Structure formats: C-alpha cells, structure tokens
Here is the input.
Amino acid sequence: MRPAHIALAALVAAVWGVNFVVIEIGLDHFPPLLFSALRFLAAALPAVFLVGRPKVAWKWIVGVGLVLGVVKFGLLFTGMDLGAPAGLASLILQVQAVFTALFAFVALGERPGTLKIAGMAVALAGIGVAAVDEGASGPLVGFALCIAAAACWGVSNVLTRKASPPDALNFMVWVSTVPILPLLALSLVLEGPERDLEALRGLDWTGVGAIVYVAWVTTVFGFGAWGWLLRRYPASSVAPFSLLVPVFGMSSAALFLGEGISGLRWCAAALLVGGVALTSFAPGRAVPSAPSPETGPEPVEASGRTVSSP
Here is the structure.
C-alpha cells in the first residue's frame, strides 16, 4: 500500500475508535434508541439521493438494516447507556469476528481450520478476562448487551456476505434507511415520548456534533474510505488496520473521558486482539466475491470477517 493509503486506513481506524467516545457524549443528550435512530436518519439523508439506486436485492438491505441497525446498535447504545465504558465497548465488539466465523460455519458451511479455532478460543478467553474485570468495577448488564451486539454484528456480516454488495457505501447508505422508523417506534414505546421530546427540545451544538460525527464521519466517510481501499488493495492488506479500532477506542476513552485501564483490561485487550487476528486472518477456502465495476470477479479469502461501521 502507498504511504498515503496506509495513513488513510489508520485514519479510518482512528475515526471508528473515537466513535465510542462520541457515542458516550451523545448518550448524555439523547436516550439510546432515539440517538441510534437519529444516527441512521442523518446517515441516510441526503446521502440516499446521491449514491444511486440499490445494487442488491431489497431482502438483503432490509435484513441487514434490521439486524445491524435496529438490534445491534440498539443493544450497543443501550449497553453503553447502562454503564458499559466506551473503551471496553470498542474492545468487546471485536469479538464479532468469532461470532461471524461461527455463524458462517452454520449458515454457509465454512469450516474453520485449527488456527481459526485456536484464535476463537483465545478471543473468548479475552472476553472472560474482561468479564472478570468488569464484574469487579462496573455493571455486567451493559457488558452483556455489548456481547449480544457483537453477536448481532456477526449475523449481519453473514447476511452481507450473502448479499455480496458491489458498492459498500451504496449498500451502507441504503441499509441506514431501514432502522429509522423501527428505532423511533421502539424509542416511543420503551423510552417514552416525554423523554424523547425533552431531548429534542434541549438539542444543542454538542448533541448535533455527536449526531454528525456518528453519522457522516463514522458511517459515510469511514465506510466510504474503507470501501475505496478495499477496491484497490487485497482485503488481507486492508483488514488488519481494523484491529487498531480498540487501540484508538481505549486510548481516546482514557484521554477524553478519564477511563482507567486496569491490568486485567490490558490482558483482555491482548487476548481479544490476538484471538481476533488469528480468527480473521487464518487461511480459509476461497469463495467467489461479487464482481466490482472496476476489477471484475476475483477470489477472496473466507476469513470470517466483514468490517462494518461501528
């Protein structure tokens, strides 16, 4: 990769890592489900009018939109609202690679090799260490919701693999249109119209900035730049940069939110990142990818990892 493109990949990882700090700030201004709905509303508009018509069947857009947008982000934002620290959330979500490999085995028949299974075991050990650390210092409910969010991310990755969108940004923008109304309805039912109205009436520049960041910077810029890199370089060259996300997430949470990083959490981070690396990049059988307009069809490694915007 050219130096400028390496810098771009690292920038995207930083943007996605800092995103967890911004989510924490946004949750000070909005109920979690309303905040998630506003995030997708801002990501979809006006971008949906600029990216062209969907390039995959609507069943995949709706399926990924519900699993990723409604369930995964609803659980993540609620878990963080219940006390899961931003830095820990950025780390825990990386276990989605393990869930992706498991669900790909069940749904797609992709058998994990010995090295991939070893990586999954190491990553799950990291989850166990993180659970011990969180149990000693914070609420386990938020921690559990973040793990459930990672599992839903794994399901959405398998659906995305089945959809094989030729244009990642186009796909993500159209997926962003799906969760808006379901999340707003859930917010009205579970969080209450009074709380939602109070949040909207008290909207300030910090709240607007949080929405803009999680929607336009994280989703539109981040996913667009990542897709641009993947169209020009092999996935094996680009995907390792995603392992920097929890590094930026934990360090930015410590810097901006004052979150401490205990010895156990460092141990959990080492196990999780190492296990995810083994799970993601262990050799796998080749499966055909959807042809891109620029390069046509080419084989890609079935590594079990699909990176989506956090």
Observations:
- Residues 286-305 have pLDDT under 50 and may be disordered.
- The first strand starts at residue 286 and ends at 288.
